[in-house]
């Protein structure tokens, strides 16, 4: 039986157990939070992204989650700069063209207020009185490097905060930032 761990990765944590660079207090790793031998991340979340990271000891499951050919849906809560128009959201739904080619169509919707159960981020997102922001929920079925950030920027709304809330059927529900549970 394979082991699956769901981890709510905080901002600033690398999606790996060791850091190849010189030891630095600002480069935290998974080892600070998870002391389970033999499990590895299935996919990645950038250091400046938060949320659901699935870890497993099953290489096939790891490949199924991480490989874009399998089209496993991943859902993100995205705080963006500005208030996206219907046209901007429609562009995301149809797929946008990035430097490395067009994206697959995405599912997207506005979220009224902040996502449910949202925790504070340390450090907080910079607040600017003169520039509004809002939250959207975006679901993609591929996983290019910094894809969600590049997609929102392509429609004129840079990402301020990015939280993965779902991978396939696994969700963050009830999982505090920095905590993990067996799936």
From TrEMBL:
Say if the entry is tagged with keyword Protein biosynthesis: no
| Record InterPro entries | PsdUridine_s_RsuA/RluB/E/F_cat, PsdUridine_synth_cat_dom_sf, PsdUridine_synth_RsuA/RluA, PsdUridine_synth_RsuA/RluB/E/F, PsdUridine_synth_RsuA/RluB_CS, RsuA_PseudoU_synthase, TruA/RsuA/RluB/E/F_N
Organismal lineage: Bacteria, Pseudomonadati, Pseudomonadota, Alphaproteobacteria, Rhodobacterales
Domain of life, per UniProt, equals Bacteria
Under Enzyme Commission nomenclature, its number is: 5.4.99.-
GO biological process entries: pseudouridine synthesis; rRNA processing
* Organism of provenance: Rhodovulum marinum
Location of the Pseudouridine synthase RsuA/RluA-like domain: 4-154
Enzyme class per UniProt: isomerase
Task: Identify this protein by name.
Answer: Pseudouridine synthase
Family membership, please give it: Belongs to the pseudouridine synthase RsuA family.
Under Pfam families, the record lists: PseudoU_synth_2
Q: Name one GO molecular function term.
A: RNA binding
Signal peptide range = none
């Amino acid at each position: 039986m394979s082991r699956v761990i769901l981890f709510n990765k905080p901002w600033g944590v690398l999606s790996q157990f060791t850091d190849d660079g010189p030891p630095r207090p600002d480069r935290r790793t998974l080892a600070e939070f998870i002391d389970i031998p033999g499990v590895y991340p299935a996919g990645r979340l950038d250091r400046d992204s938060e949320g659901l990271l699935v870890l497993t000891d099953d290489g096939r499951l790891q490949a199924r989650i991480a490989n874009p050919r399998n089209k496993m849906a991943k859902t993100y809560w995205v705080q963006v700069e500005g208030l996206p128009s219907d046209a901007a959201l429609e562009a995301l739904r149809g797929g946008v063209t990035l430097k490395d080619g067009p994206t697959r169509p995405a599912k997207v919707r506005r979220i009224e207020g902040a996502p449910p159960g949202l925790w504070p981020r340390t450090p907080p997102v910079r607040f600017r009185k003169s520039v509004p922001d809002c939250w959207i929920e975006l679901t993609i079925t591929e996983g290019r490097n910094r894809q969600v950030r590049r997609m929102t920027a392509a429609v004129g709304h840079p990402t301020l905060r990015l939280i993965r809330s779902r991978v396939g059927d696994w969700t963050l529900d009830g999982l505090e930032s920095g905590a993990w549970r067996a799936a």
